[in-house]
């Protein structure tokens, strides 16, 4: 079995029984953690990793939104992946801050999910995955699970191969001209 397929099966086994609100909150949390891992691997390690002055939750790169932006600026994700992450973030925020009983079929969620799947709608992987789980959920819920599962699996595999920023690049600019 291909690693991407294994990642998707693991993702689906974990999130398949979650109600829409839980899935809408937990999936972006997983993606946020994977982004943090990728960013940490790219950056020079913090002097005190337990209280990272950039990545701790109350710091400059402590939010999902800021991590999405820095991941893009560091070349870890492309603009399309960045846009997809922001859509998932917006869906998460609406579920997290809404008081009404929500599902993925409401107009605002449906339009964002359609925007999410648009670039991959006709790919074989997306078609096979949606076919495999169709019938168990609404089409919108199925699409959300498949696209977010693909993103999570891809980012999970990618985060393990991210190289530190100094790898194959220039040395950091030294302040002391005699030692630079």
From TrEMBL:
InterPro entries: MtlR-like, MtlR-like_sf. Signal peptide: none annotated. It comes from the Bacteria. GO terms for biological process: negative regulation of DNA-templated transcription. PANTHER family: FUMARASE E-RELATED (PTHR37941:SF1). This is Mannitol repressor protein.
